[in-house]
Amino acid sequence: MNYVLTRTHFDDTATLREAWAKYPDFPRLIALKIDVQRRGVHYTDGALTLVDPALHQLRSANIFGTRDEKVRYLLPDSLLLRDGTSIVVDPAPLEWGPYVVDRVDDRLFLFDQGERLEEVELWHKPAFYDRSTSSGVPMNLIAQARPQRINIFQSSFCYFWAKDDGGCQFCDIVNFTKQQREVLSDRPERPRARDIAETVKEALKEKGRFTTFCLTGGSVLKGEELFDLEVSHYIETLQAIGENFTTKKFPSQLVASAFNEKQLRRLWEETGLTSYTSDLEVLNERLFEWICPGKAKHVGYREWRDRLIRAVDIFGRGNVNTGIVGGVELARPLGFQGEGEALEATLSEAEYLAERGVTTIHTVWVPRPGSQFRDQVAPSLDYYIRLASGLHRLRVKYGLSIDFDDYRRCGNHPDTDLARLL
Amino acid sequence: MSLAEFHALIAAPATLKILVTTDEDGTPRPAVSDFIAPGDGGTLLYFEPLESSKTQRNLTRAIWFDRPVSVVVVAADGRRFTARGRPQRAVIAGPRFQAHYAAFRADRGDVDLAAVWVIDVTGVEGLDLGADIATEERERPFFRHLDRIARA
Description:
Chain A: This is Radical SAM protein. The complex is a heterodimer. Chain A is of the alpha/beta class. Chain A has 13 helices and 13 strands. In chain A, the strands form 2 sheets. A 7-stranded mixed β-sheet of chain A has the order 7-8-9-10-11-12-13. Chain A has a 6-stranded mixed β-sheet with strand order 1-4-5-6-2-3. The termini of chain A are far apart.
């Protein structure tokens, strides 16, 4: 059962300008990014006249959905700020009070309540998006791009959703996949290794276009041991990617289930993978059991956490992290009742992990229409500034790098944007 | 000096260029660099090959917290200038970045390119010691030592 709140919450939180004044040591551009992610964007008709499908990357096959309940592929994918910061953001209904992207002369700017804030650029489309594999599959259905990264979504079905109460409450992966099927009927359920190898080969022809790979997908529980099949799928994919490199190892990130030591060793030894992420989603055992019932039932909070720590022995300090959906710890009715309490608990647990070589990164929670938490609200901008700062301070304190998941390799984590100063 | 003259000086291979940024605590960090070129309008371009360099971090800090940077320029004929400015943009992706990436590697060999920093130049000041001495002696006469004007 969902706890219904109104959507007027953005009115009663600190404005961006108030946050800028309150936190002079926090980069204004990153505060802006956070708030744009919280509130979403609306592209004016004028802005859309500058969108050229031949040049710009439009919304494409993705793993998670949008907040406007529609799959609209003629809108820009996301934005870049002038410091190189990505804003991974989706369109929001105007009544939610999103930031507005509008045209001024031949440039695009972010506006809030009529005030012009910052220039933004659109992401550019990689050349491989216009090619097909030898089997005839459009390459943009095999891999997707960020400004400097190739994404490969292994599977858009998460087996935690197989039982009605197993999927994570904030996640819309399966519902969004069903929604996308109506539009992207040619998209394979799981990209074949040959198509992946060919797509990567084509992508690498563009010099200076990419710095890393990110592989992810829904959890696959099947196998002799839990997740064995998921691991085998990733090994197949990574080996297909690896055909294109002269070195055994290549910059890459796997965002996947919490694998056991044997599975992690297979990934390390049999592929070119260089980093490993497994998302705890929320850093609290009680809330994990409520918010991530499938993960809790099949693995459990403490075992999930321990598997991350054991992964450090294999991938090395600074090459293992866990993602949290920043703010979901405040979900109603069972979440923390105040932002201070939530922050303290989250950073305390993040420090436990940091002491053991695992870094924590956060996303900005967007209550998506296809998720169980669709009627919830994300916390304040103030909260996110303190969360990002706190996670960054832990990396400084424990000497942990986050190179594989930073502003350029990923761009979706305000806390790792701050790592540009490390 | 006109903008065109300044850009010509920057582009000349024999010109020595030093980019000065500031560390977190405000300590100036000079970096002698061959990777500075004229940009569009009144800008300079700085090509940073290393994502992890201190200059890269300092430029990030400068664009985030509106800190100034400067470029010291020494021409082959001995003329000296300081250009002041602020980083306006970090180009790290897109066709413009890729074009610079290809050109940079064609010119420099197997090196990477982390960013092209666009520095908005707000002023250029000539560094001419002879002219400065004349100005001080004319306008600030109290600053000279007496023995310099004493009878022999």
